[in-house]
């Protein structure tokens, strides 16, 4: 296989599957041969990223991801994507293990907000505690001049329940809680809400109402992936 890209997935598997479903919704050619070429490494037993960021005595997820990168080095894809926000805390450590470019979902998303939401001042960050602790979004947003609206303990507990209890543990999309969280961000003054967790992106993919102004990091990464993959098919 020539001119293909690599996906470092399994963080988690439902989120990775949703990325593929969304990709095929946006790119659906008339014949099999015109679909994209890619290699998916759905490494489901990569240790939890948030657990390690909050407690470095826990198993380090980056070791497992680097193993996967070394495998991709043998295959030589044109580029690599990681459809998980929190793993980008380790982006530099992972990128230095390969000469193959890895798309940085965090940078792409913050640049997207700057380009498409010129009037926005306050960005709510709907993400895991690991992403908050790492400040991977917060630092970049502040650099761009935005005020980041972070959840208080009560709101973060709701986010944790939605991501871990409903989606990761039960594969259940509980929209009343999802809308309640978005409403809480709105009430905190957020002009837009950044969906900075790919499990939350799964909720957005199935949300038929789209009541709130959101920026979905997974979809930003998806758009860039499709653009580059089309170039490989040209």
Automatic annotation (TrEMBL):
Pfam families attached to this UniProt entry: Asp_Glu_race (PF01177)
Record key words, sorted: Isomerase
The keyword Transcription is assigned to this record: no
Origin: domain of life: Bacteria
Gene Ontology MF term list: amino-acid racemase activity
InterPro entries with a match to the protein in the record: Asp/Glu/hydantoin_racemase, Asp/Glu_race, Asp/Glu_racemase_AS_2, Asp_race
Family in the record: Belongs to the aspartate/glutamate racemases family.
Protein's name according to its UniProt entry: Aspartate racemase
PANTHER family referenced in this protein's UniProt entry, alphabetically: ASPARTATE-GLUTAMATE RACEMASE FAMILY (PTHR21198:SF7), GLUTAMATE RACEMASE (PTHR21198)
Presence of the UniProt keyword Isomerase in the record: yes
